[in-house]
Amino acid sequence: MVITTARVRRTAASAGDAPSTPSDDALEAAWEADQVRRFTTLRSALARQGGCLAADEVCRLLRAHWDQPLSRVARWIARREVVSVSWRAQFWIPLFQFERPSLDLQPAACDVIGALRPIYDDWELAEWFARPHDLLAGRSPASRLACDPDAVREAARRDRFINRW
Known about the structure:
By secondary structure, the chain is mainly alpha-helical. The chain has seven helices and five strands, in the order E-E-H-E-H-H-E-E-H-H-H-H.
């Protein structure tokens, strides 16, 4: 067996394992297709706000502004101080949460992430920022963060209250 970050996959090299049945293969193919759709949808939704980059690319960008960017990015991800998702053995980080050109974290993004972190997993948090929100006139939180941070904070506060039950 090969253990990945997302699931356990059977391989031919697994000694003593029974071969996969067609239904196992169909389930894995459906799961993989769903993951591809989910990631593609997320990247598409965040494209206008700077898109998503693999963590190593974010490190490369930060190198011009920060000492030890790899440690900084790893710490942000481990502490869930930034929005990030794991997909195909890489962490992907949406750029809407960074100020330009300094690449500091936006204070409003930090506030919202801190409010929603206890109730959402990494994917749910990223999707929350990407999806249209009723309290933001149908616009996504990521698209409103820079121009109306207080409204995004309020939307997060309300969603946290509603979803904690």
